[in-house]
Structure formats: structure tokens, C-alpha cells
Design brief:
11 helices; 7-stranded mixed beta sheet; alpha/beta; 2 domains; binds pyridoxal-5'-phosphate; Aspartate Aminotransferase, domain 1
Length: 372
């Protein structure tokens, strides 16, 4: 609290990111769903060829170079693409642009009860009512639950975080059809890790109320670059640009634009990292299940695993951290019996499994002792 801050900032509840180790600290970092592989070698090449003299000049406000690369990769027109400083910024602009429309002070934005924890931060900060839709058995999103519920907008992460579960395009179509007067945001931060790959971008043609938000942070290994984007009808893209140009018309610098475009153009490398992570996920799920863990089917680059009864999620989180392995634990009722574990390299996952196996054995031995 500060007397120098206005009411809104005094009352804000900012997003808390997963911890970042200090430079030089040696940890196995499986807590913020970053990609363990380097970005495309084409990014280094692009930086090498970059003329620093260009930084004298303001960048292109629309990041057209990046929009064109994305449009080609996604099979849409550049005019259907909006680029921002990370998808967090794109989402923030979406909340401001599409929700709590003029004349509406009552209707809530609908989000799944357990989802990306930035959504409630935006709702609070932009004074938008919210209604959390409970998940069904097995942390599943049910499309029917988003039909016939009055709202000013809907946001669904697909695959959902932190649950890792995906819903089908048929379900998304059902939600779009039932909510034609609202913008429906599908946050596809993890969509490239689903097998088989599918995207709501294919529904764009029939649905002017659809806004698909994606990022280069996860599948393109560029969390540190800060580039995200939206794909939507020109009408929605135009709205986002109006909002952007009302506070910062240059979200991406010239160097960022060059790097982002190079990464998106290297689809061969992108597919390779994607396949590696899917393979490592299969290995991790099998290994955890054989240790007594249980988890929903993951379509993301993380799993949301419940440890066997002998050890609590919180205890396991702490013990792993003491051994230099960071995973994510949410102290939130309903999901505090699980750990969200990012899929890293095979070597990292083997080290994780070795340590988890030891923790489970120790816990079993411990509880046997107390029973004696
Ligand atoms: C990681 C993540 C984002 C944020 O991505 P940035 O582009 O790095 O801001 C958005 N949505 C979900 C669901 C995420 O997990």
C-alpha cells in the first residue's frame, strides 16, 4: 500500500510468476513451461545479419514482417494477425477491447474454474465481472456448461493450464455458435503440443466472434523474446490495434521482429522440437504412472500429476526443490493435491524421475515405520 498510488493500484492483485533461479544457480527448471531446446538457429543468423543502425528508427507498429510469417504458417491473411509483446499483453488488450462492452455493467466473462491465473488478474484490474465455470470429473471442460449462460465474453485455454487437458474443435464450435454476441477467446499457448495437432484457427471463417491467442514463448522456445499474437476477423484485429495505439503503439522492437519472423519461418525446426517434447512427455507419463502418480491425459508441454498417497504434492514440491528440481505447486483448494511438471529434455526428465522415485520410496518407508 502506498499513499502515492491510486485506488486501483492499491487494490490490484498482480500475477505471480513461477520462480526464476538466480543467474548461475544450477537447477532443473520444470516450473514455468519453457521449452528446453534453443530457439531456431535461424534466429542467431538473423541477429548476426542485423544492422544496429536500424535501431535509430522506430519499428513498424504492426510488425508486418512477423504478421506475414505467422499468416503463412497459419494459413490466414496478414490482416487477420495482431502481434503483441507476449501473449500476456495480447490477452490484456483483448480483455480491454472485447469485454464489459458499453452499456453492460452486469454480465460476467466466463472462464473455467481452474485455468490460467492471469485471467482473474485482468478481470479485477479492468473491472470486469467474472464467473468461473466448474470443471467436470477429471478436470474436464464441458462445452454444454458454456451454453445459455449470459456473458460479455468467454476465455478458454486449450489445452487448459494447469490441467493440460484439451477440448475438441467440435466443442469449441458449439461454444462459438451458442455465444454469437460475445467474443470467445481461445488461448492456444500449448496447442502445438497436442497430438494430433489441431487449432481453432480453422474455425475462423465461420466465426467473426472467435479470437485465437497464441505465443512464441512455448513451442518456439522464445519466452525471453516476448512475442505473442492473436488470429481473428479483421473487425476484431482492428479493435485490438485501436486499444494498443491508445497506450503503446510499438510493442515489438526492430530486433525482436527480425528474430520472431526467423523463428516462425523455420517450421522444420519447430516441428522437430515439438516431436521431441511429445516423445519426452510419453516417457514421463509412463514413468510417473508406474510410480503411482495419476494425471489427466496431457496435450501440453507439462503434466498435472497427483502423487501417490504416501506423499503430498506440497511435500514432494519442497523436497524436489531442496534437490535443485523446480516444479510448480499451486496452493489453491481443488488443485493443491497436484504438481504441474514441465516436460524438458529426456535427460532432465530422467533426473526428475530418479529423484521422484527416491522421494516416493522414502515416504513409503517413513509411513511404514510410523505404522509399526
Ligand atoms: C504461458 C502462457 C501464456 C503467456 O505467454 P507469453 O506469450 O509468454 O506472455 C498465455 N496463456 C497461457 C495459458 C500460458 O500458459
Amino acid at each position: 500500500m502506498s499513499r502515492f498510488w491510486n485506488k486501483k493500484i492499491n487494490e490490484a492483485k498482480p500475477y505471480v510468476a513461477g520462480e526464476q533461479p538466480k543467474p548461475g544457480q544450477k537447477v532443473i527448471k520444470l516450473n514455468t513451461n519453457e521449452n528446453p531446446f534453443r530457439p531456431s538457429p535461424d534466429c542467431s543468423e538473423a541477429v548476426k545479419n542485423f544492422d544496429m543502425g536500424q535501431l535509430r528508427l522506430y519499428p513498424d507498429t504492426d510488425s508486418v514482417m512477423v504478421c506475414e510469417a505467422i499468416a503463412e504458417a497459419e494459413g490466414v491473411l496478414p490482416s487477420n494477425v495482431f502481434v503483441g509483446n507476449g501473449s500476456d499483453e495480447v490477452l490484456a488488450l483483448c480483455f480491454q477491447t472485447f469485454f464489459e462492452k458499453e452499456g453492460n455493467t452486469d454480465l460476467p466473462v466466463l472462464t473455467p474454474e481452474f485455468s490460467y491465473s492471469f485471467y482473474p488478474v485482468f478481470e479485477r484490474f479492468y473491472d470486469i465481472r467474472s464467473r468461473k465455470i466448474p470443471l467436470r470429473e477429471g478436470l474436464r471442460i464441458e462445452a454444454e456448461d458454456y451454453v445459455g449462460v449470459p456473458n460479455c465474453g468467454i476465455v478458454i485455454a486449450n489445452p487448459n493450464a494447469p490441467t493440460s487437458r484439451a477440448i475438441s474443435l467440435e466443442d469449441i464450435r458449439k461454444i462459438l455458435e451458442a455465444n454469437k454476441d460475445s467474443v470467445v477467446i481461445i488461448d492456444e499457448a500449448y496447442a502445438y503440443f497436442a497430438e494430433p495437432y489441431e487449432t481453432a484457427v480453422t474455425l475462423l471463417e465461420d466465426h467473426p466472434n472467435l479470437c485465437v491467442v497464441r505465443t512464441l514463448s512455448k513451442s518456439y522456445s522464445l519466452a525471453g523474446l516476448r512475442t505473442g499474437y492473436a488470429i481473428a476477423s479483421e473487425e476484431l484485429i482492428e479493435g485490438l490495434k485501436r486499444c494498443r495505439d491508445s497506450f503503446n503503439s510499438y510493442p515489438l522492437g526492430r530486433l525482436e521482429q527480425v528474430i520472431a519472423a526467423a523463428a516462425v519461418r523455420d517450421q522444420a525446426y519447430h516441428s522437430w522440437t515439438r516431436q521431441e517434447i511429445i516423445k519426452n512427455r510419453i516417457y514421463t507419463v509412463e514413468a510417473l504412472e508406474s510410480l503411482g502418480f495419476d494425471m489427466p491425459e496431457s496435450s501440453a508441454n507439462f503434466v498435472f500429476a497427483r502423487p501417490p498417497k504416501c506423499i503430498s504434492a506440497q511435500k514432494l514440491y519442497k523436497n524436489l526443490k531442496a534437490k535443485g528440481i523446480l516444479v510448480r505447486y499451486f496452493d489453491t483448494e481443488g488443485i493443491n493435491d497436484r504438481l504441474r511438471i514441465t516436460i524438458g529434455t529426456r535427460e532432465q526428465m530422467e533426473q526428475l524421475i530418479a529423484q521422484v522415485s527416491k522421494e516416493v520410496e522414502d515416504a513409503k518407508a517413513g509411513s511404514d515405520n510410523t505404522q509399526d
